[in-house]
Amino acid sequence: MGKYKKHTYRFVGTHPILKYGEYYTTKQYAEAIGMSVETIRNRFRRHTEITNVTLHPASTATGNRCETKTEVFSQKWLRKTIV
What we know:
- The protein has a domain at about 1-55.
- It contains four helices and three strands; from the N terminus they run ββααβαα.
- A three-stranded mixed β-sheet has the order 2-1-3.
- By secondary structure, it is of the alpha+beta class.
């Protein structure tokens, strides 16, 4: 065993791999949801129980939000500074 205590967090949500009420380490959570261990550690910092909201990815949005050619053209002119 190492000199550090393993931190475990209780899961209180629904997930195909994780079971309600069970305790898991950050490494087990990372493997179950496909995120890095560092991200999980930062996200769980002040939590004792983990819910579906805590496990949800932060953002899946892309940088380009304009959908049509008209929106792209309009956005190009809106970004220009007024002299």
